[in-house]
Please model this.
Amino acid sequence: MLNKFRTERFSWILLIGIIMLLFEMSFYDGGVVFFLLITFGCIYFGRKRLPRTSGKLLFWFGVISLSLTILNTMAFKFFLLALLVMVILRFADSKKNPSKVEPQIKQTFHEGGEPVYIKRATLQNVWFGRLQTPEHVYEWNDINIQGGIGDTVIDLGNTVLPKGTSVVSVRHILGNIVILVPYDIEVSIHHNGLAGAITIFDRIEPKSFNQSVYYQTSEFDQAPQKVKVITSLAVGDLEVKRV
Model:
């Protein structure tokens, strides 16, 4: 139902944009339409004459002129505004209703050896929205995700980590990353961030800009059970704390 609503909303935005474009074109004089025909002609004949210099000049003149014309239309500005509103609404909705995914075994098959289990990853990649591990006990699988806009919360206190090294890898564009680590688990953190604060246990960097930070607990190398955290974030804060 939600996906249907989003599809209908996008369809309405597209329809309104087309109507605005036609309405705007109806007020243009013939000179603007004639100029658009010239730009299309330059693109067409320039492409025909590539890779000669005259072809390159015609082609790029047509592309640049057409792009500038489209950027100056009210319809294009409407699409930008509608896209911004949709992003804000999706981000606000993700704050209220975080996405929670439980790992599930899909199937088991044999290929002449021991059985192979195909499982759904604990978290899935999303462009917009908040990602969060389940609030109840869940089965552990190494986490390797990337996201666009939204917060990510990974609670390692609600799972049983296996012996050896468990891996958490998160790549994000905009939003905060929060990782909760049990007190008895040794951890190493490698973080790359363009802009944002970094808080790792009791160490705080309130204003970090274009930094690469590595942190490792004292018993990490000798610990039989440990977690390696790798994060990459364009704009946002990283917080790693004990639970």
Observations:
- The chain has a mean pLDDT of 75.
- The two ends are 37 Å apart (CA to CA).
- The first strand starts at residue 99 and ends at 100.
